[in-house]
Amino acid sequence: MWLTVSLLAITAGLLYWQYWKWTHKRLLELAALVPGPPALPILGNALIFMVNPGEMLEKISGLHDTYGQYFRFWLGPDLNISIKNPKDIRALLTSNKVNQKGPVYNFLIPFLGAGILSGGPTWRPHRKIATQSYNKKSVSHFTPIFNREAEQIARVISNRDPNVKFDIYKDVVACTTQCVNQTLMGLSKEDSQDLSRMEEMVSRTREMYALIFKAMTKWWLQIPLIYWMLGYGKKQNYFRKLVDDFTSDIVKRRQKALAEATPNEDCMGIVDRFILSGDLTEEEIKLETLTLFTTSQEAAAKIASGVLMFLAHLPDWQNKVYHEILDLVGPSGPVTSEQLKQLQYLDMVFKETLRYFSIAALIQRTVEEEITIDEGRITLPVGTSLVIPIHQLHRDPRYWEDPLKVMPERFLPENVKKRDPNAFVPFSLGPMDCLGRVYATALIKTIVVWVLRYTRLEPAGSLDNIKLQVAISVACAGGYNVRVRPRNGRINGYA
């Protein structure tokens, strides 16, 4: 009996496979024109990607080395085409024919719902509401909070034992969390300090995204039975409860506050905007709140920590940035948005950090109408999942000399002119680019200014062969370790 059932199942599978090939003839014909590894029936190339998340980037790099700037691979019946040509990347990300997230973003939905980060029918109207809290006008209103919290954390860091290395991320993420709470979340200082399960949410966010990335990249975890048998379903339920408890507290506090008064439009937080719009259900508000909370405070903390770690290892650049701060901003007092724009040396270190630690290692989009690339030589069929390997693009030796080295001088004006401008896309491009680029840039640079005013950063470890952790974004797997010494008189430069 079992043999008969097995034979019937195999036969049904093969018949379906033949039917699928017949109904996707155009897709298969166009896919055959793109180089790529041989694919197995049903599984496609899924076995190639049976690697640890940290090895995923190396696997993509190796395939590009083998097949060039374009290669195709199959994940089951899903055609994926990875594209590393800067000109085509810009054209695709800004095209109205490629205006939806790819299928891997569906793995975000159980945790974050369908919306701004995961895509779906609501991403555009939700993003339109949230954008107003991320624009330059709003950010300029947020700078007093950035300054206050950045100075506070700089004082904490300056009191560290100079002989003991530590992961500066843990201090920085405390600062970015408070800044996000008091700006985008719309909370008071007092409310932002006693939110339900906040410390747990902050400390385990990276673990949550690592779980999502694991489900995205390990095909066997996409089988529900296996996912639950291995205990990932239990973890998912834990994170869903954590998310609900944390965001429910934020939303309830803002609903209560809005019943008493409406904040200034110019500096209104995203939670207030979602509530007042009347366009989102309470569940949607909570999930979008979590999305924008984590993508704002955690991403900003990673990049700020990377900048500080690199400055610790590059004393000449630290000296340049520090004295630029003294000359253009001063040894004390708040730093303004206009002053931040003048800090060119800081901007170069900031950009090199964005190059090295990509906010998004890989992004995926779905082709909704046929579109050509490679100067017309390749036609992408409808339904193709585009893979844009930003991490690999930012380390392509055709555009970046010694790409594994940390070299802020890459962004000197004379060096920028020599490089294809599309080879550096840290915030992505087009209508689905990074929503918080203005906000994050101002927050990160403000933190660096205050930390350098109070401390001299010193290295702890080496920049050679930094191990990366990939969990949607790229982070330093071993932590952002430094040592610090308080500055003599705090404003006198190096001792």
UniProtKB/TrEMBL annotation:
SUPFAM superfamilies assigned: Cytochrome P450 (SSF48264)
GO molecular function, one term: oxidoreductase activity, acting on paired donors, with incorporation or reduction of molecular oxygen
Protein name per its UniProtKB record: Cytochrome P450 4g15-like
Gene: LOC113493453
Binding site for heme: 434
InterPro entries on file: Cyt_P450, Cyt_P450_E_grp-I, Cyt_P450_sf, Cytochrome_P450_Monoox
PANTHER family: CYTOCHROME P450 FAMILY 4, CYTOCHROME P450, FAMILY 4, SUBFAMILY B, POLYPEPTIDE 7
Listed Pfam families: p450 (PF00067)
Key words of the record: Heme, Iron, Metal-binding, Monooxygenase, Oxidoreductase
